[in-house]
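Support reply, case 0932

Customer input (verbatim):
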Amino acid sequence: MQLLLHAIEGVSRTLELKSLLAKSMESAQELMRAKASSLMLIDRMTGDLNVSIPVGPVGSKIKGMTIP
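Our regenerated output:
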């Protein structure tokens, strides 16, 4: 519950979308006790998934990858 309240506080203070999404991903990862997580966005033109915000040990390697 503390983690959720902390995440909600961050939402109210953060105006930049990318920063907000990254903080949300980190909070979700911690809450689920996951080693990694990724936010993927759909490219409306191609229908592909783009790894937008990866969090975890290989995050920098997979950022920007596209999945058909």
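We compared this against your earlier run and they match. Two observations from our side: The mean pLDDT is 83. The radius of gyration is 13 Å. Please reopen the case if you see a mismatch on your end.
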